[in-house]
Design goal:
41% of the residues lie in helices and 20% in strands. Strand 9 and strand 10 form a beta hairpin. It has 17 helices and 18 strands. Strands 1, 5, 6, 9, 10, 15, 16, 17 and 18 form a nine-stranded mixed β-sheet that branches. GO terms for molecular function: ATP binding; microtubule binding; microtubule motor activity.
Length: 527
């Protein structure tokens, strides 16, 4: 075939046009289906979509990309009774194959013999048989050490209504969701480090309902406003934060209390459909247990979000208030999709302010955060359009990059706190002395010698601790003297300023008196 015949029109028999030399069949079948339009040319990023990990890929814990996972649920009984069949196949734990159930017209020669499946490659892909524990192990568990070290982390479930988002995040008593599993491991890790570090854990729980932010732990409160703090980032003004938490069960009790106040209603697609976006935030403040006049506090924040699902009024049969709720849910999810598209395209402007939910997710999507996105999809052919849209947005989210930075606050204690610091140091010394008071082994045990190595180690640690306490005490005394000297200097300066002001005022008063007194009287006064 000559070169100029490569672009010749197809023959009348309806056969497809001849392929140019060097183009394989697979490349012609899936070029536009594997990549999204926002990904640009098929250069270096295309290799990641074909299953190869790029440098800095989110598949590795601590990577710079958002970790994107897809979870497919099983067919529901009502879907099976309606004749529904599965159109999703999971391969190799990373590949999702979506089959187009639409039939091709007999006279559509260009698409008659073409494959209608679309392939997507993600960091994790989980089948319908995967339990919540497996989902947690493969997607979220690596975030816990980061939160304790002072990083921000976010996990959110995304997808259409009745796709299984609430089941993934909350679960049920027989199978706990990601929220409970994450909190259990978080408190377990905190308990392992309590001997050398001091932790303070607080939590808050809110919902975004009809574009209004409401505190689920205080349902009688008014709607709240979102503020952007230069240090904390996006935060909610007036949100109640419950502190002094010591176990995951305490947070789960608050979570169940908040879920009772959350807005849920029955629709045609789901019996207990979430009508709002729920956000659970856990703040972890970690500092060194050794008392000092300056404390470095690591401020970690873990956000776990259960998004409401996108809806089609024709499927949910919503009317009245339910339709208004669905419109607001679709509006916020559309704004989220626009933000994902803008961030994956690396454009200058990202429309975070189009919705309250996108404002709350500003740091999670493109800021100081390590983010995990779990896209829940339905395998039924009836929900093909919703599943296709969810996979497209999840595919775009793979290209979003975040920059996680440790949040460290430096706290300088006041002089009045020095006595408390010394008290803490003395109590710690008493604990070390108690550790050194090891009773001798009784003679009937048959032990010939004690563990001298451990005793020497403890004595060495005790001596180092004493030396450190002496240095700190001297430093406290020096600072106290320095503070007193500064106060004396400050009082001298204030006295000098007051004397200067008094002299200045007297001089002004003298000038005024001189202008009012006749010259002869002034001469007499001068004499």
């Amino acid at each position: 075939m000559r070169p100029h015949d490569a672009h010749a029109p197809p023959p009348p028999s309806g056969l497809p046009p001849p392929r140019p030399p060097g183009h394989g069949q697979e490349r012609n079948r899936f070029p536009s289906k594997v990549r999204s339009l926002s990904e640009g040319p098929a250069d270096g990023r295309a290799s990641r979509e074909l299953g190869e990990e790029e440098e800095g890929s989110s598949a590795k814990p601590g990577g710079h990309n958002i970790l994107v996972a897809v979870r497919s649920r099983a067919l529901l009984p009502q879907e099976r009774s309606a004749g529904g069949h599965a159109i999703i196949t999971i391969c190799n734990g990373t590949t999702v194959i979506l089959e187009d159930p639409h039939t091709t017209a007999a006279d559509d020669y260009l698409r008659l013999n073409k494959s209608k499946e679309r392939r997507y490659h993600f960091d994790q892909a989980l089948e319908e048989t995967a339990q919540n524990l497996e989902v947690y192990e493969r997607t979220t568990r690596f975030l816990i050490p980061s939160v304790i070290q002072g990083f921000n982390a976010t996990v959110f479930a995304y997808g259409a209504t009745s796709a299984g988002k609430t089941h993934t995040m909350l679960g049920y008593p027989g199978e706990p969701g990601i929220m409970l599993l994450t909190l259990r491991d978080l408190f377990s890790e905190v308990a392992n480090q309590k001997s050398s570090l001091h932790f303070e854990i607080k939590c808050s729980f809110l919902e975004v309902y009809n574009e209004n932010v409401r505190d689920l732990l205080r349902p009688d409160s008014d709607f709240l406003d979102i503020r952007e703090d230069p240090v904390k980032g996006m935060c909610v003004a007036g949100i109640s934060e419950v502190g002094g938490l010591e176990s995951a069960e305490e947070i789960m009790a608050l979570l169940h209390q908040g879920n009772k106040n959350r807005t849920t209603e029955a629709t045609g697609a789901n019996v207990t459909s979430s009508r709002s976006h729920a956000v659970l935030q856990v703040m972890v403040h970690q500092r060194d247990r050794t008392a000092d006049i300056v404390a470095h506090v690591n401020l970690g924040k873990l956000s776990m979000i259960d998004l409401a699902g996108s809806e089609r009024a024709s499927q949910t049969n919503n009317k009245g208030m339910r339709m208004i709720e669905g419109a607001n849910i679709n509006r916020s999810l559309l704004a989220l999709g626009n933000c994902i598209t803008a961030l994956s395209s690396a454009v200058a402007f990202v429309p975070y302010r189009d919705s309250k939910m996108t404002r709350l997710l500003k740091d999670s999507l493109g800021g100081n955060c390590r983010t995990v996105m779990i896209a829940n999809v339905s395998p039924c052919h009836i929900n093909y359009e919703d599943t296709h849209n969810t996979l497209k947005y999840a595919n775009r989210a793979k290209n979003i990059k975040t920059k996680a930075v440790r949040n460290v606050a430096q706290v300088n204690y006041h002089v009045s706190k020095y006595t408390e610091i010394i008290k803490d140091l003395r109590s710690e010394i008493q604990e070390l002395k108690a550790k050194l008071a090891v009773p001798e082994a009784p003679p009937d045990l048959g032990e010939e010698e004690l563990d001298t190595t451990q005793s020497v180690k403890w004595k060495h640690e005790l001596m180092q601790n004493f030396e450190e306490r002496v240095r700190i005490k001297r430093r406290l005394i020096d600072l106290a003297h320095e503070t007193k000297n500064q106060m004396v200097q400050k009082s001298h300066a204030q006295v000098g300023i007051s004397q200067w002001e008094s002299g200045r005022q007297a001089q002004l008063d003298g000038d005024l008196d001189g202008q009012r007194t006749p010259p002869n009287i002034r001469e007499l006064q001068a004499q």
